[in-house]
Amino acid sequence: MATEETKVSDRGMVTIPASLRRRLDIEPGDKLRWNADDEGNLSVEVVKQRYGAFDDFEPVSMGGSGSETHDLAGHEEDPAFFENN
C-alpha cells in the first residue's frame, strides 16, 4: 500500500493524486464516501456513478410513427404552433 499526501485548500478541497485515480479507476462523477471513527481515523470509499439516472428504465413508446415530438407531460406537440409563435 503506497502512501500519498495532499494538501487541504482554504476552501476545504483536496485533489486525489493521479496515481490513485488510475489505480482505483476513479472517474468524473464518482463519489467519495467519508467515514471517521471516534479515534479520528478516516477512511474513504469510492462510489461509482457510471450510469445516468434513467439508465435502468426501458424506453416507453408514445405511440405513432416515432417522428412526433411530445412535451414533458407526453402530449403531442403541434409543430405549426412553434412556426407561428
From TrEMBL:
Entries under Pfam families matching the protein: MazE_antitoxin (PF04014)
Residue ranges occupied by any SpoVT-AbrB domain in the UniProt entry: 3-49
InterPro entries named among the record's database cross-references: SpoVT-AbrB_dom, SpoVT-AbrB_sf
Ranges of biased composition (kind: Basic and acidic residues): 68-78
Disordered: annotated span: 58-85
GO molecular function: DNA binding
Signal peptide: none
Protein name: Looped-hinge helix DNA binding domain-containing protein, AbrB family
Organism of derivation: Haladaptatus litoreus
